[in-house]
What we know:
By secondary structure, the chain is of the alpha/beta class. The chain is 35% helix and 17% strand. It has 8 helices and 10 strands. It has an 8-stranded mixed sheet with strand order 3-2-1-4-5-6-9-10, sandwiched between helices. A two-stranded antiparallel sheet has the order 7-8. The relative contact order is 0.14.
Amino acid sequence: RLVAAQQLGLFSEYEQIRGKSVAIVGCGGIGVQVTEILTRYGVGMVSLYDRNKVKKADLCRMFFRPDHIGWSKVQVARHFLAEANPDVIFRTFSYDVGKRYEDFVVSLRRGSIDESLPVDLVICCVDNVEARNTVNEACQELNVPFFSASIDNKAMKGEVRFISPGRTGCLQCAQKPGGGKKGLLKSNPDDPTHVAFPSSDAVIAGLVSNEAVKLLFGFGKVKNFMINLMTCYVTTFATPINASCMNELCKKRQEEVAKETAPVVEETAVQQAQ
């Protein structure tokens, strides 16, 4: 069925997906479903990051079973999905990417199948702003594109945002100084009123996976989405570059892209003007 998309002209060679490497940070309700979708697409290598173990509260919205309680989320995900597609290579990292930032960056830098290049794409599915900023920092440092997929505490509003270092604004471009937010969803899984619906997670996971596949295959136009699942209202939006971004690496990437896209003035034309 997937190869049929090649026959329709969506991309030239379906097998190219086997050479792609994707990192998924956060194996919660959204992250595990993104991982399963990309595994079934046949992505060559998938790197999974999550510091948590399976809890009883996770059973309502993921493929985890009661006997998995207490296990590392990334280990369970690898075991389950390796059976679904044994051709995919899995790497698992069961730690806090913020507390082990240098290890996180090194693993992404060596994230290609032959470990000579960074991963092709990062998909951030974590449930707090601090961890998203960590992923944002690492991707700016390595110049790797990434998606941020998130849902609010009431499980009724979700967001998918694409970041291309220097070409779009980063996550911190959309934040106000002092930690405030502007257009970014916040979530706190420790909040006793935190709601989790498997259907809501599935919608966001499907949207970000679809955009990721478009990026990996190079067809269509990648978009950002904000969706209200209560009203079924979907909007697309841009992530504009903020020249005053608080992230220094982001500003560095902006400068690099500006130099790449600056118009080239031929020497002969300059001489004629003189």
